[in-house]
Amino acid sequence: MVRQRIGDIASDVAAHFQIVENIKSLQAVQKEMTTTIRELGERIRDLQIEMKVLKAEVKFESLKETQNIVNAVQGGLNQRIEALSIKVAITERSISSLPQLADPTPPKTG
Protein backbone atom coordinates (compact mmCIF):
# COMPACT_ATOMS: atom_id res chain seq x y z
CA MET A 1 0.00 0.00 0.00
CA VAL A 2 2.82 2.39 0.86
CA ARG A 3 4.63 1.37 -2.29
CA GLN A 4 1.48 2.00 -4.26
CA ARG A 5 1.14 5.40 -2.68
CA ILE A 6 4.80 6.24 -3.43
CA GLY A 7 4.25 5.10 -7.02
CA ASP A 8 1.18 7.31 -7.37
CA ILE A 9 3.05 10.30 -5.93
CA ALA A 10 5.99 9.64 -8.28
CA SER A 11 3.57 9.50 -11.24
CA ASP A 12 1.94 12.76 -10.11
CA VAL A 13 5.36 14.42 -9.75
CA ALA A 14 6.41 13.15 -13.22
CA ALA A 15 3.15 14.42 -14.73
CA HIS A 16 3.69 17.78 -13.01
CA PHE A 17 7.23 18.02 -14.43
CA GLN A 18 5.89 17.12 -17.88
CA ILE A 19 3.30 19.88 -17.60
CA VAL A 20 6.02 22.36 -16.58
CA GLU A 21 8.14 21.29 -19.59
CA ASN A 22 5.14 21.64 -21.90
CA ILE A 23 4.49 25.13 -20.55
CA LYS A 24 8.16 26.06 -21.13
CA SER A 25 7.94 24.72 -24.68
CA LEU A 26 4.75 26.68 -25.31
CA GLN A 27 6.36 29.84 -23.96
CA ALA A 28 9.39 29.33 -26.22
CA VAL A 29 7.12 28.84 -29.25
CA GLN A 30 5.13 31.91 -28.25
CA LYS A 31 8.35 33.96 -28.13
CA GLU A 32 9.32 32.64 -31.57
CA MET A 33 5.90 33.53 -32.93
CA THR A 34 6.16 37.03 -31.45
CA THR A 35 9.58 37.49 -33.05
CA THR A 36 8.33 36.16 -36.39
CA ILE A 37 5.25 38.40 -36.31
CA ARG A 38 7.43 41.43 -35.50
CA GLU A 39 9.79 40.54 -38.37
CA LEU A 40 6.81 40.13 -40.73
CA GLY A 41 5.51 43.54 -39.65
CA GLU A 42 8.90 45.10 -40.36
CA ARG A 43 9.06 43.39 -43.75
CA ILE A 44 5.57 44.62 -44.61
CA ARG A 45 6.60 48.18 -43.70
CA ASP A 46 9.72 47.80 -45.84
CA LEU A 47 7.61 46.56 -48.75
CA GLN A 48 5.23 49.49 -48.33
CA ILE A 49 8.16 51.89 -48.50
CA GLU A 50 9.54 50.09 -51.54
CA MET A 51 6.13 50.30 -53.21
CA LYS A 52 5.96 54.04 -52.55
CA VAL A 53 9.43 54.49 -54.04
CA LEU A 54 8.53 52.33 -57.04
CA LYS A 55 5.30 54.26 -57.53
CA ALA A 56 7.22 57.55 -57.48
CA GLU A 57 9.75 56.17 -59.98
CA VAL A 58 6.97 54.99 -62.31
CA LYS A 59 5.29 58.41 -62.11
CA PHE A 60 8.60 60.11 -62.84
CA GLU A 61 9.30 57.86 -65.83
CA SER A 62 5.74 58.46 -67.12
CA LEU A 63 6.22 62.19 -66.84
CA LYS A 64 9.55 61.99 -68.67
CA GLU A 65 7.99 59.95 -71.46
CA THR A 66 5.02 62.32 -71.68
CA GLN A 67 7.39 65.28 -71.85
CA ASN A 68 9.32 63.58 -74.67
CA ILE A 69 6.09 63.04 -76.59
CA VAL A 70 4.99 66.64 -76.03
CA ASN A 71 8.40 67.90 -77.16
CA ALA A 72 8.28 65.76 -80.30
CA VAL A 73 4.78 66.96 -81.20
CA GLN A 74 5.73 70.56 -80.45
CA GLY A 75 8.87 70.23 -82.59
CA GLY A 76 6.86 68.84 -85.50
CA LEU A 77 4.29 71.60 -85.14
CA ASN A 78 7.01 74.27 -85.07
CA GLN A 79 8.54 72.83 -88.25
CA ARG A 80 5.16 72.92 -89.99
CA ILE A 81 4.55 76.50 -88.87
CA GLU A 82 8.02 77.49 -90.07
CA ALA A 83 7.45 75.80 -93.45
CA LEU A 84 4.08 77.52 -93.77
CA SER A 85 5.64 80.91 -92.94
CA ILE A 86 8.26 80.37 -95.64
CA LYS A 87 5.56 79.45 -98.17
CA VAL A 88 3.56 82.57 -97.26
CA ALA A 89 6.66 84.76 -97.63
CA ILE A 90 7.49 83.20 -101.02
CA THR A 91 3.89 83.63 -102.17
CA GLU A 92 3.90 87.29 -101.09
CA ARG A 93 7.12 87.93 -103.01
CA SER A 94 5.74 86.20 -106.07
CA ILE A 95 2.59 88.28 -105.95
CA SER A 96 4.48 91.56 -105.46
CA SER A 97 6.80 90.76 -108.38
CA LEU A 98 3.87 90.53 -110.78
CA PRO A 99 2.80 94.11 -111.64
CA GLN A 100 -0.78 93.32 -112.53
CA LEU A 101 -1.31 91.47 -109.25
CA ALA A 102 0.61 93.92 -107.12
CA ASP A 103 -1.60 96.87 -108.17
CA PRO A 104 -4.97 95.56 -109.34
CA THR A 105 -6.33 99.04 -110.24
CA PRO A 106 -6.29 99.70 -114.01
CA PRO A 107 -4.00 102.48 -115.21
CA LYS A 108 -5.77 105.81 -115.72
CA THR A 109 -6.05 107.02 -119.24
CA GLY A 110 -6.41 110.56 -119.63
Strand content: under 5%
Secondary structure tally, helices: 2
H/E topology pattern: HH
Largest sheet: none
Radius of gyration, in angstroms, nearest whole number = 47 Å
Average pLDDT figure: 91
Give me the secondary-structure category: mainly alpha
Shape: rod-shaped
Question: How many runs of DSSP E, i.e. beta strands?
Answer: 0
**Which spans have pLDDT < 50 for at least 5 consecutive residues?**
none
What's the helical proportion of residues?
Answer: over 70%
Distance between the termini: 163 Å
Q: How would the blueprint of this fold be written?
A:
Blueprint: H1 2-97, H2 99-102
How would you describe this structure in keywords?
110 residues, mainly alpha, 91% helix, 0% strand
Report on this model:
By secondary structure, this protein is mainly alpha-helical.
Brief summary:
Helices cover about 90% and strands about 0% of the residues. The chain has helices spanning about 1-95, 100.
